[in-house]
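Hi team,

As requested, here is the filled-out complex form for the adenosine-5'-triphosphate run. I kept the field names the same as last time so the parser does not choke. Let me know if anything looks off before we queue the next batch.

— J.
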Amino acid sequence: MTDTTPVLELKDIKVYHRARSGSLFRPNIVKAIDGVDFTISRGETVGVVGESGSGKSTLATVLVGLQEPTAGEVLFRGERVNTRASSSKKLFGRDVGVVFQDPSTALNPRMTIHDILTDPLQVHGIGNQSSREAKVKDLLQLVGLPQSAAEVTPNQVSGGQRQRVAIARALTLDPSIIVADEPTSALDVSVRAQVLNLLSDLKKELDLGMVFISHDIQTVRYVSDRICVIYLGRIVEQGSAHEVFENPTNDYTKSLLGAAPSLLHI
Ligand SMILES: Nc1ncnc2c1ncn2[C@@H]1O[C@H](COP(=O)(O)OP(=O)(O)OP(=O)(O)O)[C@@H](O)[C@H]1O
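And here is what came back:
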């Protein structure tokens, strides 16, 4: 029987920050995330869409185990995890891959692409030299890069190819979930569709769960099975991509749809 337990589940997650504008005795609190429930399972793409400051990146950092929530529960395969514990960090590190917006800053410009791709294997003590070499070959092929790319640094390839390297690195440890935070926003319009198609193909081929985060509702629609609309730290609407587009119930979703260009802006 197929295991339908979500790989990751967030329950009533809150992430509050103390704003700089407050004083010691009367702090102003910024509610970056304010009571979010969220699940992601293998084989589905969940799009998270909202305008700047709505809490998308904060949600991403909770999902990849980089942010300790102020309140709420994080469950990994049904088990509650303490995101502060080093064992949890290892678990997240292996099972949840992350792709950030700008590969120029996410990848070490001094390392060769070969070393970037083998680094996570070394850190986790996985495999030997020959299995790592084989892994680099497989990863480059998987993301559509030539084998010769292994020998150069990220600065020596194009922006689209750099994002492919970042995607390959996210896949190095065979995660079951990928969290992609605005993965095409920093790219030339001409290569955005290629990177989106690559992510969609990888999701199918590797049966990944994918959280796709973007401010652009049309891009989210293009890749997502399910969509969560986030506004001021809360999920104000969610449903299948079809439901949310054809029959939005929330005024904020309607305004996002109204503001979106009618042609797919990718
Ligand atoms: N460390 C922090 N300290 C104070 N406020 C923060 C901190 N991190 C985030 N915030 C605030 O929390 C809110 C949500 O931020 P977040 O970066 O998650 O939004 P976002 O939707 O990803 O926006 P963007 O698309 O502009 O990155 C914003 O108001 C932001 O200013």
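Two things worth flagging: The chain has one domain: 8-259. The beta strands are 8-19, 28-40, 45-49, 71-76, 79-80, 96-99, 177-181, 209-214, 226-231, 234-240.

Thanks,
J.
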